[in-house]
Amino acid sequence: MFQKLWLIPAVLLVAGGIAFAATRSTPPADLDYSLSHLSKDGHYQVTLVPGIDPVPVGKMHAWLVDVTDAAGQPVDADIVIDGGMPQHGHGLPTVPAVTGKDHHGRHIVGGMRFNMPGWWVLKVEISGTAGVDTATFNLAL
């Protein structure tokens, strides 16, 4: 029995190597990188506007989030934004938060920072008159 114990570290090493390689693969080829689309259930049109173009890596910045109903009318809604890197299994290095609204009624989200290049996903949760819905956005930095 003890003669085969060496297999345990060998299997763990191989499994770890496979997992590491999977996280470094290229993102799916069919990703939608648009920054404006309907929310998952179609209740809201959500548009993200980065405060800096191109979006920087390693620099703190803000984004604007515009929320309208499906007909394009402004919606009074609360939003929460979160995200991460699906291939790396980690979230954003910061906790973005709504800090107010601009003169067009768009939410100002401060505390955005991406700590490395690659495929990022941002998820916006909207709580408005039509209910709670989410919109998910892909970014390539």
UniProtKB/TrEMBL annotation:
Residues spanning the signal sequence: 1-21
UniProt keyword list: Signal
Taxonomy, superkingdom: Bacteria
Pfam family, one: YtkA
Domain YtkA-like, first and last residues per copy: 43-124
Protein name (Swiss-Prot/TrEMBL): FixH family protein
Organism: Devosia oryzisoli
